[in-house]
Amino acid sequence: MTINELQDNVIEEFSAFDDWMDKYALLIDLGNSLPPLEDKYKTESNLIEGCQSRVWLQADYVDGKLVFQGESDAVIVKGIVSLLINILSDHTPQEILDADLYFIEKIGLKEHLSPTRSNGLVSMVKQMRMYALAFRTKEME
């Protein structure tokens, strides 16, 4: 599936709920479905700066595509990490760099997060794009 198809699925899933408490519950479920990150990846270098809670993000380059793994110690943030991983993982660095992550606006995520969580979301996206840029640069060498 393309990044946009995956985003459209998320938008559809969230549009089934009108109440933000239900949407938060969906985020928590998504976070709970995220496989735990191995301790060897819970390092300072994988810790995302700018997040209120602790968020780790691991990126591996497998067969020309980035595979992300992540975890957070906060349940809602873990759900956000899960959303980003589901949408961006298993795509090429160029696809990730070209992606317009419109789902964030469409599901109302930014406006329903506290300012610090919203900053954390921006930091997570930025870090995923930095990994994509780094691996794309390696591809071109």
From TrEMBL:
Residues 11-130 form the Fe-S metabolism associated domain. Gene3D superfamilies: 3.90.1010.10. SUPFAM superfamilies: SufE/NifU. InterPro entries: Fe-S_metab-assoc_dom. Belongs to the SufE family. This is Cysteine desulfuration protein SufE. It comes from Parabacteroides chinchillae.
